Protein backbone atom coordinates (compact mmCIF):
# COMPACT_ATOMS: atom_id res chain seq x y z
CA UNK A 1 0.00 0.00 0.00
CA UNK A 2 2.67 2.52 1.05
CA UNK A 3 4.89 1.77 -1.96
CA UNK A 4 2.16 2.98 -4.36
CA UNK A 5 2.64 6.50 -2.99
CA UNK A 6 6.10 6.70 -4.59
CA UNK A 7 4.54 7.43 -8.00
CA UNK A 8 3.21 10.88 -9.00
CA UNK A 9 -0.34 11.92 -8.23
CA UNK A 10 -2.88 10.32 -10.61
CA UNK A 11 -0.19 8.52 -12.61
CA UNK A 12 -1.15 5.13 -13.98
CA UNK A 13 1.16 2.45 -12.59
CA UNK A 14 1.72 -0.70 -14.61
CA UNK A 15 0.91 -3.75 -12.54
CA UNK A 16 4.08 -5.52 -13.64
CA UNK A 17 6.10 -2.49 -12.55
CA UNK A 18 4.45 -2.64 -9.15
CA UNK A 19 5.15 -6.37 -8.91
CA UNK A 20 8.83 -5.78 -9.70
CA UNK A 21 8.94 -3.12 -7.00
CA UNK A 22 7.37 -5.38 -4.39
CA UNK A 23 9.73 -8.24 -5.24
CA UNK A 24 12.71 -5.89 -5.08
CA UNK A 25 11.67 -4.70 -1.63
CA UNK A 26 11.16 -8.25 -0.41
CA UNK A 27 7.42 -7.75 0.08
CA UNK A 28 6.66 -10.65 -2.26
CA UNK A 29 9.04 -13.60 -2.14
CA UNK A 30 7.63 -16.87 -3.39
CA UNK A 31 9.63 -19.99 -4.34
CA UNK A 32 9.31 -19.31 -8.10
CA UNK A 33 8.61 -16.33 -10.32
CA UNK A 34 5.18 -17.50 -11.42
CA UNK A 35 4.02 -17.82 -7.81
CA UNK A 36 5.49 -14.38 -7.03
CA UNK A 37 3.52 -12.73 -9.84
CA UNK A 38 0.35 -14.59 -8.87
CA UNK A 39 0.70 -13.55 -5.23
CA UNK A 40 1.43 -9.93 -6.17
CA UNK A 41 -1.56 -9.77 -8.52
CA UNK A 42 -3.74 -11.14 -5.73
CA UNK A 43 -2.49 -8.36 -3.43
CA UNK A 44 -3.26 -5.76 -6.11
CA UNK A 45 -6.80 -7.15 -6.40
CA UNK A 46 -7.16 -6.92 -2.62
CA UNK A 47 -6.06 -3.26 -2.67
CA UNK A 48 -8.53 -2.54 -5.48
CA UNK A 49 -11.32 -4.26 -3.58
CA UNK A 50 -10.52 -2.10 -0.55
CA UNK A 51 -10.64 1.03 -2.78
CA UNK A 52 -7.00 1.81 -1.95
CA UNK A 53 -6.09 1.44 -5.62
CA UNK A 54 -8.17 2.34 -8.66
CA UNK A 55 -8.23 0.33 -11.89
CA UNK A 56 -6.91 2.08 -14.97
CA UNK A 57 -6.50 1.34 -18.68
CA UNK A 58 -4.05 -1.20 -20.11
CA UNK A 59 -3.81 -3.28 -16.95
CA UNK A 60 -2.74 -0.24 -14.89
CA UNK A 61 -3.71 0.98 -11.44
CA UNK A 62 -3.41 4.33 -9.72
CA UNK A 63 -3.75 5.79 -6.25
CA UNK A 64 -6.06 8.71 -5.62
CA UNK A 65 -4.57 11.85 -4.13
CA UNK A 66 -6.27 11.62 -0.72
CA UNK A 67 -5.26 7.97 -0.29
CA UNK A 68 -1.71 8.81 -1.34
CA UNK A 69 -1.46 11.65 1.18
CA UNK A 70 -2.74 9.33 3.90
CA UNK A 71 -0.14 6.71 3.02
CA UNK A 72 2.67 9.26 3.26
CA UNK A 73 1.27 10.56 6.55
CA UNK A 74 1.41 7.02 7.94
CA UNK A 75 5.15 6.91 7.15
CA UNK A 76 5.82 9.65 9.76
CA UNK A 77 8.19 11.49 7.45
CA UNK A 78 10.36 8.46 6.68
CA UNK A 79 9.07 8.37 3.09
CA UNK A 80 10.03 11.57 1.29
CA UNK A 81 8.20 11.88 -2.04
CA UNK A 82 8.58 14.89 -4.36
CA UNK A 83 7.52 13.83 -7.84
CA UNK A 84 6.72 15.78 -10.98
CA UNK A 85 3.23 16.31 -12.33
CA UNK A 86 2.03 14.12 -15.15
CA UNK A 87 -0.58 14.60 -17.84
CA UNK A 88 -1.67 12.68 -20.91
CA UNK A 89 0.49 12.86 -23.99
CA UNK A 90 3.65 11.38 -25.50
CA UNK A 91 6.78 10.93 -23.44
CA UNK A 92 9.03 13.85 -24.30
CA UNK A 93 12.42 13.12 -25.89
CA UNK A 94 11.83 9.39 -25.69
CA UNK A 95 13.05 8.62 -29.20
CA UNK A 96 12.00 5.40 -30.92
CA UNK A 97 10.34 2.56 -29.07
CA UNK A 98 9.76 -1.05 -30.09
CA UNK A 99 6.15 -1.84 -30.82
CA UNK A 100 6.62 -5.45 -29.75
CA UNK A 101 8.45 -4.91 -26.51
CA UNK A 102 7.14 -6.37 -23.27
CA UNK A 103 7.11 -3.01 -21.47
CA UNK A 104 5.54 -0.08 -23.24
CA UNK A 105 7.02 3.41 -22.89
CA UNK A 106 5.29 5.56 -20.30
CA UNK A 107 2.38 7.39 -21.86
CA UNK A 108 2.96 10.60 -19.92
CA UNK A 109 4.27 14.07 -20.36
CA UNK A 110 6.73 14.88 -17.61
CA UNK A 111 6.24 18.29 -16.07
CA UNK A 112 8.65 19.04 -13.21
CA UNK A 113 6.99 20.63 -10.23
CA UNK A 114 8.45 24.13 -9.67
CA UNK A 115 8.02 23.73 -5.92
CA UNK A 116 10.48 20.84 -5.96
CA UNK A 117 13.41 23.03 -6.98
CA UNK A 118 13.11 24.98 -3.71
CA UNK A 119 14.06 21.78 -1.94
CA UNK A 120 17.43 21.42 -3.60
CA UNK A 121 19.46 23.32 -1.04
CA UNK A 122 17.56 22.07 2.00
CA UNK A 123 16.67 18.47 1.25
CA UNK A 124 16.28 16.23 4.31
CA UNK A 125 18.17 13.18 3.09
CA UNK A 126 19.14 12.24 6.62
CA UNK A 127 15.56 11.85 7.84
CA UNK A 128 14.38 9.50 5.11
CA UNK A 129 14.23 5.76 4.69
CA UNK A 130 12.73 6.14 1.20
CA UNK A 131 13.19 8.99 -1.28
CA UNK A 132 11.21 9.22 -4.52
CA UNK A 133 12.11 11.99 -6.98
CA UNK A 134 10.77 10.41 -10.14
CA UNK A 135 9.37 12.40 -13.08
CA UNK A 136 11.10 15.71 -12.29
CA UNK A 137 13.27 16.12 -15.43
CA UNK A 138 16.20 16.58 -13.04
CA UNK A 139 19.72 16.86 -14.41
CA UNK A 140 21.22 16.73 -10.91
CA UNK A 141 20.24 15.60 -7.44
CA UNK A 142 19.39 17.82 -4.49
CA UNK A 143 22.41 18.87 -2.46
CA UNK A 144 23.75 16.28 -0.03
CA UNK A 145 25.50 18.09 2.81
CA UNK A 146 28.62 16.57 4.28
CA UNK A 147 27.08 16.53 7.76
CA UNK A 148 24.00 14.54 6.72
CA UNK A 149 23.73 10.96 8.01
CA UNK A 150 22.50 8.74 5.18
CA UNK A 151 22.60 5.45 7.06
CA UNK A 152 18.79 5.09 7.14
CA UNK A 153 18.21 5.67 3.41
CA UNK A 154 17.33 2.30 1.88
CA UNK A 155 15.08 3.09 -1.11
CA UNK A 156 15.94 5.60 -3.84
CA UNK A 157 13.60 6.09 -6.83
CA UNK A 158 15.04 8.39 -9.51
CA UNK A 159 13.38 7.08 -12.67
CA UNK A 160 12.10 9.28 -15.51
CA UNK A 161 14.54 12.14 -15.08
CA UNK A 162 17.47 13.46 -17.14
CA UNK A 163 20.30 12.26 -14.92
CA UNK A 164 23.66 11.30 -16.41
CA UNK A 165 26.96 9.96 -15.08
CA UNK A 166 27.64 13.24 -13.27
CA UNK A 167 25.46 12.03 -10.42
CA UNK A 168 27.90 9.21 -9.65
CA UNK A 169 29.84 11.09 -6.98
CA UNK A 170 26.64 11.87 -5.12
CA UNK A 171 25.20 8.39 -5.56
CA UNK A 172 28.24 6.72 -4.01
CA UNK A 173 27.45 8.37 -0.69
CA UNK A 174 24.24 6.36 -0.38
CA UNK A 175 26.09 3.33 0.97
CA UNK A 176 23.08 1.90 2.84
CA UNK A 177 20.74 1.90 -0.18
CA UNK A 178 19.38 -1.52 -1.06
CA UNK A 179 16.87 -0.45 -3.76
CA UNK A 180 17.92 1.92 -6.56
CA UNK A 181 15.85 2.75 -9.64
CA UNK A 182 17.62 4.85 -12.30
CA UNK A 183 15.52 3.73 -15.27
CA UNK A 184 14.49 6.19 -18.00
CA UNK A 185 17.46 8.53 -17.55
CA UNK A 186 20.41 9.58 -19.71
CA UNK A 187 23.24 7.42 -18.44
CA UNK A 188 25.70 6.56 -21.22
CA UNK A 189 27.48 3.95 -19.13
CA UNK A 190 27.25 2.24 -15.76
CA UNK A 191 29.39 4.40 -13.44
CA UNK A 192 32.06 2.57 -11.44
CA UNK A 193 31.01 4.58 -8.38
CA UNK A 194 27.63 2.90 -8.53
CA UNK A 195 29.36 -0.46 -8.14
CA UNK A 196 30.61 0.64 -4.71
CA UNK A 197 27.06 0.41 -3.31
CA UNK A 198 27.66 -3.10 -2.05
CA UNK A 199 24.37 -3.29 -0.11
CA UNK A 200 22.31 -3.06 -3.30
CA UNK A 201 19.76 -5.81 -3.73
CA UNK A 202 17.72 -4.15 -6.51
CA UNK A 203 19.19 -2.15 -9.40
CA UNK A 204 17.14 -0.91 -12.35
CA UNK A 205 19.01 0.80 -15.20
CA UNK A 206 16.43 0.04 -17.89
CA UNK A 207 15.85 2.45 -20.77
CA UNK A 208 19.15 4.24 -20.48
CA UNK A 209 19.46 3.74 -24.21
CA UNK A 210 23.19 4.48 -24.60
CA UNK A 211 24.53 1.95 -22.09
CA UNK A 212 26.47 -0.51 -24.26
CA UNK A 213 28.53 -2.58 -21.83
CA UNK A 214 28.57 -3.92 -18.30
CA UNK A 215 31.68 -3.00 -16.28
CA UNK A 216 33.70 -5.72 -14.58
CA UNK A 217 33.15 -4.02 -11.22
CA UNK A 218 29.42 -4.79 -11.33
CA UNK A 219 30.45 -8.18 -10.02
CA UNK A 220 31.25 -6.49 -6.68
CA UNK A 221 27.52 -6.17 -5.98
CA UNK A 222 27.39 -9.62 -4.42
CA UNK A 223 24.11 -8.95 -2.57
CA UNK A 224 22.29 -8.05 -5.79
CA UNK A 225 19.08 -10.03 -6.31
CA UNK A 226 17.34 -8.05 -9.07
CA UNK A 227 19.15 -6.54 -12.07
CA UNK A 228 17.08 -4.84 -14.79
CA UNK A 229 18.92 -3.75 -17.95
CA UNK A 230 16.00 -3.79 -20.37
CA UNK A 231 15.94 -1.25 -23.18
CA UNK A 232 19.69 -0.63 -23.14
CA UNK A 233 22.11 -1.35 -25.98
CA UNK A 234 24.37 -3.72 -24.07
CA UNK A 235 26.46 -5.92 -26.34
CA UNK A 236 29.26 -7.11 -24.03
CA UNK A 237 29.36 -8.53 -20.51
CA UNK A 238 32.80 -9.48 -19.16
CA UNK A 239 33.41 -13.09 -18.19
CA UNK A 240 32.67 -13.83 -14.56
CA UNK A 241 30.48 -10.81 -13.82
CA UNK A 242 27.18 -12.68 -13.84
CA UNK A 243 28.56 -15.71 -11.99
CA UNK A 244 29.81 -13.35 -9.24
CA UNK A 245 26.21 -12.32 -8.51
CA UNK A 246 25.47 -15.47 -6.56
CA UNK A 247 22.30 -14.07 -4.93
CA UNK A 248 20.76 -13.06 -8.26
CA UNK A 249 17.08 -13.94 -8.66
CA UNK A 250 16.01 -11.85 -11.67
CA UNK A 251 18.09 -10.72 -14.65
CA UNK A 252 16.45 -8.70 -17.43
CA UNK A 253 18.60 -8.27 -20.55
CA UNK A 254 15.92 -7.61 -23.17
CA UNK A 255 17.62 -4.95 -25.24
CA UNK A 256 16.05 -2.40 -27.55
CA UNK A 257 14.45 -3.35 -30.84
CA UNK A 258 13.91 -0.36 -33.10
CA UNK A 259 12.66 -2.20 -36.14
CA UNK A 260 13.76 -2.55 -39.71
CA UNK A 261 16.32 -0.13 -41.09
CA UNK A 262 17.94 0.82 -37.79
CA UNK A 263 21.12 -1.06 -36.94
CA UNK A 264 21.63 -2.15 -33.36
CA UNK A 265 24.69 -3.71 -31.77
CA UNK A 266 24.74 -7.52 -31.97
CA UNK A 267 24.19 -9.43 -28.76
CA UNK A 268 27.59 -11.06 -28.22
CA UNK A 269 27.41 -12.16 -24.60
CA UNK A 270 24.86 -14.96 -24.79
CA UNK A 271 27.28 -17.91 -25.26
CA UNK A 272 29.24 -16.72 -22.22
CA UNK A 273 26.48 -15.93 -19.78
CA UNK A 274 24.21 -18.92 -20.40
CA UNK A 275 26.49 -21.34 -18.52
CA UNK A 276 27.17 -18.69 -15.86
CA UNK A 277 23.44 -18.30 -15.28
CA UNK A 278 23.10 -22.05 -15.00
CA UNK A 279 25.42 -22.02 -11.99
CA UNK A 280 23.32 -19.54 -9.95
CA UNK A 281 21.17 -21.48 -7.51
CA UNK A 282 18.70 -18.72 -6.56
CA UNK A 283 17.76 -17.68 -10.10
CA UNK A 284 14.00 -17.31 -10.70
CA UNK A 285 13.75 -15.28 -13.93
CA UNK A 286 15.88 -14.53 -16.98
CA UNK A 287 14.69 -12.18 -19.76
CA UNK A 288 16.99 -12.35 -22.74
CA UNK A 289 17.52 -11.77 -26.47
CA UNK A 290 18.72 -14.75 -28.52
CA UNK A 291 20.22 -13.83 -31.90
CA UNK A 292 20.84 -16.40 -34.60
CA UNK A 293 20.46 -20.15 -34.88
CA UNK A 294 23.68 -20.88 -32.99
CA UNK A 295 22.53 -19.07 -29.86
CA UNK A 296 19.09 -20.64 -30.22
CA UNK A 297 20.58 -24.12 -30.26
CA UNK A 298 22.65 -23.30 -27.17
CA UNK A 299 19.42 -23.15 -25.20
CA UNK A 300 19.07 -26.92 -25.57
CA UNK A 301 22.34 -27.31 -23.64
CA UNK A 302 21.23 -25.09 -20.75
CA UNK A 303 18.65 -26.99 -18.76
CA UNK A 304 16.73 -25.46 -15.88
CA UNK A 305 17.14 -21.82 -16.90
CA UNK A 306 13.98 -19.99 -15.78
CA UNK A 307 13.47 -18.03 -19.00
CA UNK A 308 10.41 -15.81 -18.66
CA UNK A 309 10.65 -13.33 -21.54
CA UNK A 310 12.54 -14.38 -24.66
CA UNK A 311 13.16 -12.51 -27.92
CA UNK A 312 14.38 -14.67 -30.82
CA UNK A 313 15.87 -12.52 -33.56
CA UNK A 314 17.81 -13.01 -36.79
CA UNK A 315 17.13 -16.73 -36.99
CA UNK A 316 19.07 -17.84 -40.08
CA UNK A 317 17.44 -21.11 -41.09
CA UNK A 318 19.25 -22.73 -44.02
CA UNK A 319 16.22 -24.93 -44.70
CA UNK A 320 13.86 -21.99 -44.27
CA UNK A 321 12.21 -23.89 -41.40
CA UNK A 322 11.93 -22.73 -37.80
CA UNK A 323 10.86 -25.33 -35.25
CA UNK A 324 9.36 -24.44 -31.91
CA UNK A 325 9.41 -27.68 -29.94
CA UNK A 326 10.46 -29.40 -26.77
CA UNK A 327 13.77 -30.40 -28.41
CA UNK A 328 14.99 -26.83 -27.81
CA UNK A 329 12.83 -25.72 -24.89
CA UNK A 330 13.23 -29.15 -23.37
CA UNK A 331 13.12 -28.90 -19.60
CA UNK A 332 9.97 -28.83 -17.53
CA UNK A 333 11.05 -25.66 -15.70
CA UNK A 334 10.90 -23.61 -18.89
CA UNK A 335 7.44 -24.92 -19.64
CA UNK A 336 6.27 -23.34 -16.38
CA UNK A 337 8.21 -20.04 -16.60
CA UNK A 338 8.08 -18.82 -20.23
CA UNK A 339 5.54 -15.99 -20.28
CA UNK A 340 6.42 -14.01 -23.43
CA UNK A 341 7.98 -15.07 -26.73
CA UNK A 342 8.98 -12.80 -29.59
CA UNK A 343 10.19 -14.07 -32.98
CA UNK A 344 11.33 -11.21 -35.19
CA UNK A 345 13.54 -9.99 -38.01
CA UNK A 346 14.14 -13.48 -39.39
CA UNK A 347 13.92 -15.26 -42.74
CA UNK A 348 12.07 -18.52 -42.13
CA UNK A 349 9.31 -19.59 -44.51
CA UNK A 350 7.60 -21.94 -42.08
CA UNK A 351 7.12 -22.08 -38.33
CA UNK A 352 6.47 -25.60 -37.10
CA UNK A 353 4.90 -26.19 -33.71
CA UNK A 354 5.96 -29.70 -32.89
CA UNK A 355 5.87 -32.09 -29.93
CA UNK A 356 7.78 -35.35 -30.22
CA UNK A 357 6.73 -38.76 -29.00
CA UNK A 358 9.33 -38.58 -26.22
CA UNK A 359 7.45 -35.67 -24.58
CA UNK A 360 3.76 -36.32 -25.29
CA UNK A 361 2.46 -34.03 -22.53
CA UNK A 362 4.90 -31.13 -22.87
CA UNK A 363 3.33 -27.67 -23.05
CA UNK A 364 4.11 -24.00 -22.41
CA UNK A 365 1.59 -23.66 -19.61
CA UNK A 366 2.66 -20.14 -18.55
CA UNK A 367 3.05 -18.62 -22.04
CA UNK A 368 0.53 -15.79 -22.44
CA UNK A 369 1.88 -13.69 -25.30
CA UNK A 370 3.56 -14.42 -28.64
CA UNK A 371 4.72 -11.69 -31.02
CA UNK A 372 5.70 -12.37 -34.65
CA UNK A 373 7.28 -9.30 -36.18
CA UNK A 374 9.02 -8.51 -39.47
CA UNK A 375 9.07 -12.10 -40.74
CA UNK A 376 8.80 -11.15 -44.39
CA UNK A 377 9.37 -14.65 -45.78
CA UNK A 378 6.96 -16.41 -43.44
CA UNK A 379 4.16 -18.19 -45.32
CA UNK A 380 2.89 -20.90 -42.97
CA UNK A 381 2.43 -21.75 -39.31
CA UNK A 382 1.94 -25.49 -38.96
CA UNK A 383 1.00 -27.66 -36.00
CA UNK A 384 2.02 -31.33 -36.10
CA UNK A 385 0.32 -34.06 -34.11
CA UNK A 386 -1.27 -31.67 -31.63
CA UNK A 387 -3.80 -28.92 -31.16
CA UNK A 388 -2.36 -25.42 -30.56
CA UNK A 389 -4.35 -25.30 -27.33
CA UNK A 390 -2.50 -28.38 -26.07
CA UNK A 391 0.84 -26.65 -26.57
CA UNK A 392 -0.26 -23.14 -25.48
CA UNK A 393 -3.13 -23.57 -23.00
CA UNK A 394 -2.76 -20.07 -21.50
CA UNK A 395 -2.01 -18.02 -24.63
CA UNK A 396 -4.13 -14.86 -24.59
CA UNK A 397 -2.29 -12.58 -27.05
CA UNK A 398 -0.94 -13.42 -30.50
CA UNK A 399 0.30 -10.36 -32.36
CA UNK A 400 1.41 -10.64 -35.99
CA UNK A 401 2.98 -7.57 -37.64
CA UNK A 402 4.83 -7.08 -40.94
CA UNK A 403 4.48 -10.73 -41.94
CA UNK A 404 3.04 -9.89 -45.34
CA UNK A 405 3.24 -13.37 -46.90
CA UNK A 406 1.41 -15.06 -44.05
CA UNK A 407 -2.16 -15.43 -45.28
CA UNK A 408 -3.63 -18.09 -43.02
CA UNK A 409 -3.52 -18.37 -39.23
CA UNK A 410 -6.62 -20.53 -38.85
CA UNK A 411 -4.84 -22.53 -36.16
CA UNK A 412 -5.65 -19.70 -33.76
CA UNK A 413 -9.28 -20.77 -33.62
CA UNK A 414 -8.19 -23.59 -31.32
CA UNK A 415 -6.62 -21.24 -28.76
CA UNK A 416 -9.42 -21.04 -26.22
CA UNK A 417 -7.84 -18.29 -24.07
CA UNK A 418 -7.03 -15.95 -26.97
CA UNK A 419 -8.34 -12.44 -26.39
Q: Which structural class do you get from the secondary structure elements?
A: alpha/beta
pLDDT averaged over residues = 83
Q: What's the CATH C level of the largest domain? A: Alpha Beta
The domain count comes to 2
Largest sheet, strands/sense/barrel: 12 strands, parallel
Task: Quote the distance from N terminus to C terminus.
Answer: 30 Å
C-alpha-based Rg, rounded: 22 Å
| Order of strands, widest sheet | 4-7-8-9-10-11-12-13-14-16-18-20
Strand content: 15-25%
- CATH architecture name of the largest domain: Alpha-Beta Horseshoe
Unreliable stretches, pLDDT < 50, 5 or more residues?
Answer: 87-115, 258-263
Helix content: 10-25%
Task: Count every beta strand, where a strand is a DSSP E run of 2 or more residues.
Answer: 20
Shape: globular
InterPro entries: Leu-rich_rpt_typical-subtyp (IPR003591), LRR_dom_sf (IPR032675), LRR_R13L4/SHOC2-like (IPR055414), Plant_NBS-LRR (IPR050905)
Protein name: NBS-LRR protein
Organism: Oryza sativa subsp. indica
Pfam families: LRR_14
